[in-house]
UniProtKB/TrEMBL annotation:
Keyword Oxidoreductase annotated: yes
Pfam families to which the protein is assigned, alphabetical: FAD_binding_3 (PF01494)
Swiss-Prot/TrEMBL keywords: Monooxygenase, Oxidoreductase
Protein name: FAD-dependent monooxygenase
Record GO terms (molecular function): monooxygenase activity
Residue ranges crossing the lipid bilayer per the database entry: none
Domain FAD-binding: 2-311
Length: 401
């Protein structure tokens, strides 16, 4: 049986483990966190990823946990509505909290996948027949293949492909999300306020019992300690100091939140998603940024394609990784383009563009092209043709090990 070590137990990792097990491989997932990571922001699915959820047999489970977020409105400093967007524009065809999705994927795979929590890969040494792995815990093991599904700051990418700086492209923004009280009484809805280069607001979650506070701001590269959460909170607070509307209450909520996410809005661009016996999937290989609305779809579809191509190539990883690369590339390009465009509209840089955007959003429902935004994002979600790997015969048997 071919053994595959997957680094990262969020979306791409468990989804890959699911498909690998189904094709007769033996997956092991190592996750740095001590347990499946709960909570988090809302993530959504569009187009081809909906088909993959269906083929995994988990579409109904994801639908059961859907956020059902409706309209998102934009307000002025006085809180008066100035524009809005449809739920599909920001929440896709199906939206779920990332933690709920992770729970579903973990439950679906934990019987057939070895999960190792609280550990991480320290070194990878590849030879002709496998990869020797040393873990931070000191343990040493050997696997046939290693896959990095460990996100934007992937350790596997750093170890196998070189420094993050060679692949990470900042889009010029930072993002912070945390769970706060739903003090605006948002009813399955979101409310956002903009100033040039800044977007602040919240959307309700968990049946309106709480809200996720969002802070996006444009900035050149910031120098900060990734482990110092209180300092990061103050950094975000300083960016939004003096902004009226609900900002003071959202900042206070963020300061006291049980969870806190802060990072640059960045993309990962690579010429190849594999090297030898090591490959990358999801954000680790082709992060499109939170503002693409396509990161989760990319992770789910990428896992499906990678496992499917391995199955089809009868375990020949060279042929499979090559095919995975070719099949994903245009899809990744379309999603990353949407990430750049999305940022421009979500965080308008100037007062005049902000006014223009709000005017366009106000007029859109009366225009013949009123469904344009929904259609465009669905088109990106479908910018890949999915093969039905299970119906395809492997090219040759998996070689005995
Ligand atoms: C604020 C925000 C909003 C977003 N909104 C959306 C949205 O609306 N729609 C959408 O589709 N996408 C959205 N995304 C993007 C989406 O969350 C990601 O694209 C998706 O989670 C990628 O999944 P992944 O499994 O590839 O990586 P991740 O979800 O980043 O998971 C990586 C995993 O690897 C683990 N890990 C990291 N380093 C190591 C290590 N050294 N060793 C072991 N484990 C490690 C991490 O703990 C984590 O569990 C958003 C992202 C953010 C930050």
């Amino acid at each position: 049986m071919t053994t595959v070590l997957i680094s990262g137990a969020s979306v791409a990792g468990p989804a890959l483990a699911y498909w690998l097990h189904r094709y007769g491989y033996t997956p092991t997932v190592v996750e740095r966190a001590p347990a499946p990571r709960p909570g988090g922001y809302a993530v959504d699915f569009r187009g081809a990823s909906m088909t993959v959820l269906e083929r995994m047999g988990i579409l109904a489970k994801v639908q059961e946990k859907a956020t059902h977020l409706g309209e998102v409105e934009y307000v002025n400093a006085a809180g008066k509505r100035v524009a809005s967007t449809s739920s599909t524009a920001l929440s896709g065809e199906l939206e779920i909290l990332r933690g709920d999705l992770v729970d579903i994927l973990y439950a679906e795979t934990s019987d057939n996948t070895e999960y190792v929590f609280g550990d991480s890969i320290l070194s990878l040494t590849e030879d002709e027949t496998g990869v020797d792995v040393v873990f931070e815990s000191g343990r040493k093991r050997r696997f046939d293949l290693v896959i990095g599904a460990d996100g934007l700051h992937s350790a596997v990418r750093r170890l196998a492909f070189g420094p993050e700086s060679s692949y990470l492209h900042d889009l010029g923004y930072y993002v912070s999300v945390s769970t706060v009280a739903n003090h605006m009484d948002l009813d399955y809805a979101g409310r956002l306020y903009n100033e040039p280069g800044k977007t602040i607001g919240a959307y309700s979650s968990r049946q309106n019992t709480e809200a996720k506070a969002l802070f996006y701001f444009s900035s050149g590269k910031l120098d900060y300690d990734r482990r110092d959460i209180p300092a990061q909170k103050e950094l975000v607070a300083a960016q939004f100091a003096g902004i009226g509307w609900e900002a003071p209450r959202l900042i206070e909520g963020m300061r006291n939140a049980p969870d806190f996410y802060f990072d640059s809005v960045s993309q990962i661009k690579m010429d190849r998603y594999s090297r030898g016996r090591i490959a990358l999937v999801g954000d680790a290989g082709y992060c499109a940024s939170p503002l693409s609305g396509m990161g989760t779809s990319l992770a789910i579809v990428g896992a499906y394609v990678l496992a499917g191509e391995l199955h089809l190539a009868g375990g020949d990883h060279v042929r499979a990784f090559e095919a995975y690369d070719v099949r994903m590339r245009d899809f990744v390009a379309a999603c990353q383009k949407q990430g750049v465009e999305g940022a421009r509209w979500f965080i308008p840089a100037t007062k005049s563009f902000l006014k223009l955007r709000n005017l366009m959003f106000r007029m859109l429902p009366y225009m013949p092209w009123r469904n344009m935004i929904d259609e465009m994002s669905l088109k990106v979600g479908n910018a890949i043709e999915l093969r039905t790997y299970e119906d395809l015969q492997p090219l040759r048997a998996v070689p005995p090990r």
